[in-house]
Write a structure and sequence with these properties.
SH3 type barrels; alpha+beta; ten-stranded mixed beta sheet; 42% strand; 673 residues
Length: 673
Amino acid sequence: MGHVRSAGALILGSIISSFTGSSNAQELPLRRVLLTTGGVGYFEHEATVTGDATLSLDVRLDQVSDILKSIVVVDAQGQMGRATLPGREPLAEIFRDMPFTLEDLSSPASLMRALRGSMVRMSVHASVIEGRIISVTEETTSLGEGQGTIVRHRMTLMGSTGMRQAVLEDAGSIEIVDPILRANVENALAAVAAHSATGRRMISIQAEGEGERTVSVGYVAEAPLWKATYRLVLPNSGNMAQMEGFALLENMSGHDWIGVELAVASGNPATFRQALYEAYFVTRPVVPVEVFGRILPPVDPGAVARDKAVDAPSLSRHSGVMPFAMPDGLSAAEETEAPAADTSIARATEGETAVTFMFADPIDLARGEAMLAPIIQRQMRAERVSVYRRDVGKTNPTASVRLVNESDTGLPPGAVTVYEMQGEQGDLAFVGDAQLGALPMGEERLLGFAADLEVRVNYDDKYAQVMTGASIDRGVLVVRRVERRQTDYTIAGPANEPRSMIIEHPRIAGFALVAPMQGVLGETTTHHRVSLEVAAGQTAMLEVILERPIEERMSIGGIGVEALGVFAQSAEISETVRAALRRVAELQRTLSGRQQALAALEADRTRIAADQERLRKNLEAVPAESDLGTRYLAALAETEDRIAALDQSIAAARDGVKMAKDELEQFIASLSL
């Protein structure tokens, strides 16, 4: 399996559905299997042939569509051949044009009824009866003396001398006289025998060529994904652990694996199913037959000229078929040499999209059985750490191993059973289970396997917003702040030994990690990772700070004098901006003072106008020549003079307010600091 064939892979020139196969077909033993984690497997059968040969491939019915989609034939010296197989419903097609059905073959009586009118020759006792079948009648005969009844069938034939009858069960033989009809019955029975296994199909492959040669037939079909499991043995001291990996294999292919060259691949290939073995028909419109008197549709006003019509491209029997090279090792990935320290049980090959493990020895595995086969055995750097995540343990971290893949091939995902060597004899002790994600070469993974009860972690969350500066953009005050989320971790280590800790702190969208600056290992999709060492019997502190900048924009004209005073006193804002804010506050105070003076004048005028209205009503109620009337008239004249003076003052005050407002707005609009 390690070399590459020089011959091209010949895709079958045609796949022809038929109802019979070759009785002289040569079997194709299974030689190679590649199981993937994509729900499919590659299966390769191989046989040695001489000259033109017919090869038979017995497969499950549910595999046929996959095989039709992917089958390739590797023939070093042959020509493109063809494959034949029964249709999806072969018996239904065979009996479609027969004068009898499949059910009619269930008994002689049913068949004779179906052949009504056909010429038969019956041998009954010492006589021979010949004629056409008129009827087959069921009769119930009592056996007497309480022995029950039996059912017999009386046949009536029309012969040259008239009608004759005989009991079917008494006939020694019944011959169908018509040779064509007799051949139909024989062919139907042969088809029933050939297709009695409804769950399987026989594919016949024609290999055309000269001389003795090896022909391989490969295809991709559905297969259960193989599972990787690991055993990690941690040493008493040091950081090199023993890693052993196994592949759990299941043979659900429908064939026994005898001396099969087996490989397993870990990757995520794109796979899909297509029902190629189903018959599909195009729905066509039904056009009624024209009869006399029918109203015809209008004539088509135009058509494409004959000389401009485009001919459909002709398809040769080789159309779209291109030979391609195919490796004997079941994978096109380039092989990489494993490092000397890596003693793999199976040979590992690193490709662009998958890691393939090829077993050195052939595999025997009966259909329906499973096997646990070793794939790796190597020393790997495994550093013990305790990992704390607040959503996993409330106060205790998780005892973990930081596993580093320094080999030239990746490791597929799988469950890891973790053992520890204890005592002077190095006895194994189970310490926990872990889950290993896909581990590409050069990367590392954390494997958590137990709670670390000797370490306690507490944390305290704090929140704050801190202003960092401000600017003015065309009358808009832009205030810059930092939103800060701080967590103080307190880690109490074990009394007798140090601990290497990793704190996994939750990531928050939009926030960046600004502290600590040391010990940051990186981040996952959900957490930041920070490492620190905790001495024996000591308590360590870790401050984790996440920050994000926020910006608030507000119109300066809408900010009150008191708020402007607060901003003007902030040390985080530049002196230039603060001076501008003080000037705005001063102009706002001027405007406010003038607005208040205007409001007071308008209030005085309103009050005097009300007094004037009261005096007019009083004047109407007393004689004009009376002393009281004279007083009211004098007071009315006085209020009129006061209102006139107030109107002049209000007009001047309004001009002052407008000037102050214009000055404020022009100053604000001119600000860009």
